[in-house]
Amino acid sequence: MRIHVNGRNIEITDAIKAYVKEKIGKVATHYDQIQSIEVILSVIKNPAAAEKHIAEVRCSLDKVKLHLEETAESMYASIDLLSDKLLRQVKKVKDKSLSSNKASIRTDSIEEENEEDEIVVVEAISEE
Predict the structure, then answer these.
(1) Domain extent at residue 15
(2) What are the residues facing 39 on neighbouring strands?
(3) How many CA atoms lie within 13 A of 56 on its CB side?
(4) What is the pTM of this model?
(5) Which of the four pLDDT bands, split at 50, 70 and 90, describes residue 50?
(6) CA distance 10 to 49
(7) pLDDT tens across 108-117, in order?
(8) Could you tell me if residue 9 is inside a domain?
């Protein structure tokens, strides 16, 4: 998996790059189908803007592409919020992909019929 960090109106220092790779890299431990992650960090230079630091991520999974964005008053806070949001979305995609393989109409209906038969047998024995 590749984590690529870009900056708009900001110089990406080694400390920021290491922090991004640490926080966003934790997401890769939860799902192994992540192919690449691109993080874009930007700053709004307008003094009237309250939350000036923006962190975006584009994550390419096996069949899904995620695009998330967070803003905050500091770059580290926006990265933290973004990593939490990305982790929730990746877990959601993982759960959907795993649960879709397990569900089957044929096996569900057979199990329900077997449960009804067992109840009838138990009632017949208790009456005698």
Answers:
(1) 2-97
(2) 5, 57
(3) 8
(4) 0.72
(5) confident
(6) 16
(7) 555 555 555 5
(8) yes
